[in-house]
Structures are given as structure tokens and as C-alpha cells.
Amino acid sequence: MQDSPAEVEAMIPKFYVVSLNKFAILFIGTAGLYMVYWFYQQWKSYKLSVNGNQMPILRALFSIFFVHSLFNKLTAFYAIKSGKKSSALSTAATLFVVVSAISFASGYVPEDSELKPFLLVLNLVFTFVLCWFCYQAQWFINYICNDINGESNKEFTGANYAWIAVGALFWCMYVIGIIGHF
Known about the structure:
Elements: H1 5-11, H2 20-29, H3 34-50, H4 56-61, H5 63-82, H6 88-106, H7 116-144, H8 158-180
Helix pairs in contact: 2-7, 2-8, 5-6, 5-7, 6-7, 7-8
């Protein structure tokens, strides 16, 4: 017996919806700092929706350990809602862990190493790569929450602009750091 659309909707917990444009601008504009907030909001929304005992702040701060769990949940709910299977987020989660681990490890390379300038540029690229992985997850979230365009959260707030300003300072310091190594 097929579940009715209402029954399918009832099975799907709520997640944090945001328009893809706003997501990308905040992620890149804050030099990746938005990622922590984004993971926090996803886990907080999920916890409230299922009356769970997850600790959103820890899952956000240690996203490298929880990204598979979140992305697997999204994949499962996408399959329930669409009737289609997708491995996109499984791959994205694995690559997220790999890229995050490389980025973290590169911070331990000595400042006077000949590799340091290369690693700084690589970490710059990694910001965009991590954004892409989470962007894909946000598309799934918007789909399963019936807001594919993120209309319910597409406007920028004063806080968003403030975080982008902070991110601009990070970007300036980062670029100055890269230039200083050449």
C-alpha cells in the first residue's frame, strides 16, 4: 500500500532552508565561517523536528565526524520524498572529510616550509570545494522541505551583512598572508 503525500510529508523532519544564492554568498563571503552556523542550524532543526537528543553545537563544531550522518539522513529523506535514490551526498560527505582533513593537517606545516605558499592557495580552493559539497546538501534540504528555491529564507539580514563584513576581513588577511609567502 502506497503512503499518501501527507503521510510521506509527516515522515520527513524539518531542516534549515536557505536559498542557494544566499547560502553560497554567506559561505564564501564569510570565508567558510558560515559552515559552522549552517551545520548547527541543520542539526538544531532536525533535533527539534524529531524530538531527538543530538547536540547541535558539538555536531557543528566537529562536522567532520557528523557530516556522513547528516548527509545520509538527507539522502534517505530525499528517497522517501522523490522515490529516487542518489549517491551524490554520500560521495560529497566522504570528500568533505578528506578535504577537511587535508586542510586541517596543512596547518601543521612549518611556516618556513617551501610547501606553505602552495598549501595556503590550496586551502583557499578548499573553501570553494567545501562550499560545493554543502551547497549540494542544501539543494536536497530545500527539496525535501518543499522550498526548492529557498523562498522562505532568501533575504539578507543585518546579521548576514555583518558576518560578510567579518568574512571580508578574513579574506583580506588570508590574501595578505598568501602574498607574504611569495
